[in-house]
Amino acid sequence: MSTDKKGGIYSPVVTPFGADLAPDGQRLVRHCRWLLGQGVGLAVFGTNSEANSMSAQEKMGLMDDLVKAGIAPGRMMPGTGCCALTDTVELTRHALAHDIHDVLMLPPFYYKGVSDDGLFASYSEVIQRVGDASLRIYLYHIPPVSQVPLSIPLIQRLLDAYPRVIAGIKDSSGDWSNTQAMLQSVQSPDFNVYAGSESFLLDTLRGGGAGCITATGNVNPAAIVHLYETWQNEDADRQQAALNAVRQAFQQFSMIPALKAAVASYGDDPDWFRVRPPLLALGDAQAKKLITDLDKLGFSMPGLNQKAGHIG
Amino acid sequence: MSTDKKGGIYSPVVTPFGADLAPDGQRLVRHCRWLLGQGVGLAVFGTNSEANSMSAQEKMGLMDDLVKAGIAPGRMMPGTGCCALTDTVELTRHALAHDIHDVLMLPPFYYKGVSDDGLFASYSEVIQRVGDASLRIYLYHIPPVSQVPLSIPLIQRLLDAYPRVIAGIKDSSGDWSNTQAMLQSVQSPDFNVYAGSESFLLDTLRGGGAGCITATGNVNPAAIVHLYETWQNEDADRQQAALNAVRQAFQQFSMIPALKAAVASYGDDPDWFRVRPPLLALGDAQAKKLITDLDKLGFSMPGLNQKAGHIG
């Protein structure tokens, strides 16, 4: 692992919505402060943030709220990849204007079966339009959702063309052999491979990867960060198994509503249950089952509900 | 077929882009005028319009251009369905503000495997937020691209809840048995089923459907409209076969670039070749092959290049 590599654990931060389903900047700031206190970075506007259920304007407004509240730009990796070239460019520029240099970028995901040439053209066009040498793009490979995969030859071509800009990838294929191929085949000393969930954290670190960007970073951050920091210890496999058990409790349900149910329940803040359609909030019985199962694992979210943490 | 039913042929109008890839309102107006002259309605901002490669702002700007140029609002059926609830609501309201009442609405398409309850909640939320009794939604079922299908029970449930608003569907499943099921199973006298391509036009009309909304409406409108108007004539099957042959020539290539290549070539206006990434324009050899094959079929686009038609 090159010493130039970045690394760590990021949480695709869940987005709170008000009764009118408008994004709630104040609650988001509060959750981000808690997450930072637990040691995870903020991959705001990821899949688990319901980012694509929000307009570009709504996301830019939340970015403004976070920066205004003093959340460190260097700890953020906002998702800025949209279907529309112009939205992607606008969001990315907005991040840079706030001194946020790391972005996680989906390919345009409406059209399916597009060519590597077309995807290369997409990322190129964004990079050239943004035109800022301080931009660091983390590619976002999540074929189960986007249905638009990023092949290793495409990644290599982007790296060769933009070695300073293409900083890494999040692999949410859910396929360890794919992560392994990225770790082994991509030719660049500074390419940061993040696993898309903590299920592959230990394997990823052992393979020279950078860490993970994981849904459950929203709820179980300290334990995931602990494995990241101590992965060469003897108890690493035991730690990984404990992380898997917690993740399993969430995976019984639709992940985003389950994450929000945990934040709502452990933080005693029912507004957190809300999701935007097409997702549906967890029902009472499901939420109860989730919490019961988590309690059995000794799970907790210490210090979560610090309602005093208002936007300054 | 109920006499209340609407019907006809619509074209998902291809969107011209300038050298800077900005949408070109003037060229769009010109193409829309030509299409209207050929007898097809304007399903602007459809899949073949690269609608999801444009921001909501860009689409609203084009809508303004069209209306300002005197394009009849009653002949438009803009696509307004986006991933983000707020974008869908904003675009739909913008259409209504221009006296455009018919819209073609994709479900939110980022999250996959969502429930019918979640999709029902999505459409409900849009309908309630827009809050305009004159809204007519045509559902847009295009699982090969959106990867988010609209089931017949969901369609029926939406119709039962919003009988005046849910006006019909475009079935771009490419699966005739599905269109047939929609024609036969949906219980509503005023539900308009549009085939997603002219390949199924004759079958759709024979089954009591409303017409079709088809990519090749951009290039072969008069012949498709002719079949629509004379489908009970003896030569209907022969007409259908001739339409299929033209479509086949386009289907050798990626459809959107091929449509644009035809508009560019027959209209002697090379700017039309341009697409936004992740799509790629047809190469010279491909374009030549397309035109050669179309010429062999006696294909033409009479009156296409009327550059005098500036925005007033």
CATH superfamily of chain A: Aldolase class I
Q: Please name the two chains that share the biggest interface, counting residues whose Cβ lies under 8 Å from a Cβ on the partner chain.
A: A-B, 40 and 40 residues
Cα-atom Rg of chain A, whole angstroms?
Answer: 18 Å
Q: What does the main sheet of chain A amount to? A: 7 strands, parallel
- The number of domains of chain A is 1
Mean pLDDT of chain A: 95
**Shape, per Cα inertia axes of chain A:** globular
CATH topology of chain A: TIM Barrel
Uncertain runs of chain A: 308-312
Helix percentage of chain A: 40-55%
Kindly report the spatial arrangement of strands forming the biggest sheet of chain A: 2-1-7-6-5-4-3
Which structural class do the helices and strands of chain A define?
alpha/beta
CATH architectural label of chain A = Alpha-Beta Barrel
User: What's the quaternary structure here?
Assistant: homodimer
Cα distance, first to last residue of chain A?
40 Å
How much of the sequence lies in strands of chain A comes to 5-15%
Supply the CATH class of chain A: Alpha Beta
Order of SSEs of chain A, N→C?
EHEHHEHEHHEHEHEHHHH
